[in-house]
Please model this.
Amino acid sequence: MNSRSFAVVGAGIGGLTTALTLARLGHEVTLVERRTGFTEVGAGLQLSPNASRILLELGLGAALRRVVTEPERVRIRTLRTGREIGRIALGDFMRGRFDAPYWVVHRADLQTVLLDAVRSLPNIRIVMGRTVEGVVDGPDDASLTMTSSQSRDTLTADAVIGADGVWSKLRHSLGDTAAPTFRNAIAWRTTIERHLAPAELAGNETGLWLGPKGHVVHYPVAGGRLINIVAIEKSDTPVEGWAAPGQREALLTHYRSAAPLLRELLAGAGEWLRWSLFDHPVGPMAKGRIALLGDAAHPVLPFLAQGAALAIEDAALLGTLVRDPRSDIVQSLKTYEQGRRDRAKKVQEQARRNGQIYHARNLVAFGRDRVIRHLGPVGMTERYAWLYGHRG
Ligand SMILES: Cc1cc2nc3c(=O)[nH]c(=O)nc-3n(C[C@H](O)[C@H](O)[C@H](O)COP(=O)(O)OP(=O)(O)OC[C@H]3O[C@@H](n4cnc5c(N)ncnc54)[C@H](O)[C@@H]3O)c2cc1C
Model:
């Protein structure tokens, strides 16, 4: 046997990276996606060295360099006054320290780079507009049922990889039927033309504004042409739907006591989309010939900017473990689970803790600011050496 067959469910960043990784090893891949086309929301993504390293190893460096930006630092400010609290070293320091860059990118650009690479490989078949309803794990193969409004088909493969996101159906096939937990926060996202942002906030750096009612992150994407903005609103009720439109006035009301400079940035954007933020404890990640990956396996709050990065790490380890087509696939998937669970848990916990730290008030906020100042830009980056220096 020279190769294996894999069905990958979901063509998000996790599914695309997995399909590419497996196909580069010579395996036959069918990528099933319920959407009928590849549109992406206008939003950005931070790609820390633990993820960029893997994308570079996949040979995507030249294509990515055309669309990414490499900010020099994160500048941390107090949301209410705009006073600078401290900085986190990115740019050259990050690249030198972890041997890979800290990039920021428009999600649509990353998706295009991954899709182009996926489409260039003859051993990947993309099946669009089909929803996977369930998977049956058999002794010799796994088969999934996929439906569209007109059809119902079965697909059989040596293994099925569920990369179907936070509301994963494949997670149910592994015995985890609990719904994800709403974490009392809503992310407002938009991108604006750089010239619409206040000049002070339009440089090659990431801005992070901390306050008790939420925090704001912004950074340049699309080669610096756009500024991506994420504003977190603490809230007890989730919004309807996955990405609901948001009214700028409501956001400005929420941030009415923010510094004028930040309010000017937020006011510059016309259209906002809102995401309710959910996560879910890491459950089983593999059973028989089925494995989960990315948000399907370990949805994580965006407060550490690691959801997509974890999915990319998952794909890399999976690739390493199924490289040899004669290996026992069930054992390989078990080893994959063992290799990923603790890391995913640690990132999830740290992301939750970051939310508490970002939204701290009074004495706790005072202590936080002192620590940030004491550590300095390099110390702030070094705190995350375990995260950014990870090699699977
Ligand atoms: C506000 C915000 C900011 C973020 N910022 C960052 C960041 O800076 N850095 C970072 O690394 N991460 C970030 N993330 C997290 C990141 O976006 C996600 O973790 C990542 O996109 C998950 O990728 P995925 O491929 O696992 O899932 P998804 O992107 O959700 O993809 C799942 C795919 O599966 C498809 N699908 C679902 N069900 C089925 C089915 N039954 N059959 C067929 N197809 C199906 C869906 O249509 C979708 O295309 C952020 C998230 C949010 C909300």
